[in-house]
Amino acid sequence: MNASLSRSQLLRAAAAACGLFVFTLFVPWFGSGSAEITGEEALPSYWLFLLFAIAAGVLLMSESLGFEMPAWFRTAPHGAMVAAFPYVMTLALFLEGGGLDRRLGLFAALALSGLSVVLPVLAWRAESPSARASARVR
Q: Which residues touch 93 (CB under 8 Å, ≥6 apart)?
């Protein structure tokens, strides 16, 4: 586990990244062209991105705040899986281009959605049995 951040802090940071990703959907994406465009206009079916990012943020924040979840429900891996949809779709849009080259909002959306996947995976790794066993050995 990362010695500088606890599992709860990783999950809160991932939830904050989801919230900021949602914010980037509605602010202008400034770039090389003269026209301003928002994520709402640029992303196909932006409401799917919105729903998945909000669901992932709620899952991750609920775990970090200590809300009880069913025993079969592991929040970090489920939150990472739900957050993966906006990341993969934003990455596809980033790689495709489609006239959105060098848009600051697209870079921000890609970075934030990537953080919202990586941070829960780090928290999930910290709770795995192999991580606990290696912590006992040290």
A: 42, 43, 100, 106
Show the 3-state SS of the chain. CCCCCCHHHHHHHHHHHHHHHHHHCCCEECCCCCCCEEHHHHCCCHHHHHHHHHHHHHHHHHHHCCCCCCCCCCHHHHHHHHHHHHHHHHHHHHHHCCCCCCCHHHHHHHHHHHHHHHHHHHHHHHHCHHHHHHHHHC
Measured CA to CA, the distance from residue 101 to residue 136 in angstroms comes to 48
d(CA 113, CA 108): 8
- pLDDT tens digits, 121-137: 888 887 766 655 555 55
Instruction: Report the predicted TM-score, pTM, of the whole model to 2 decimal places.
Output: 0.79
CB 105 within 8 A of CB 39: yes
Q: Phi, psi at residue 28, to the nearest 5°?
A: -65, 140
d(CA 113, CA 110): 5
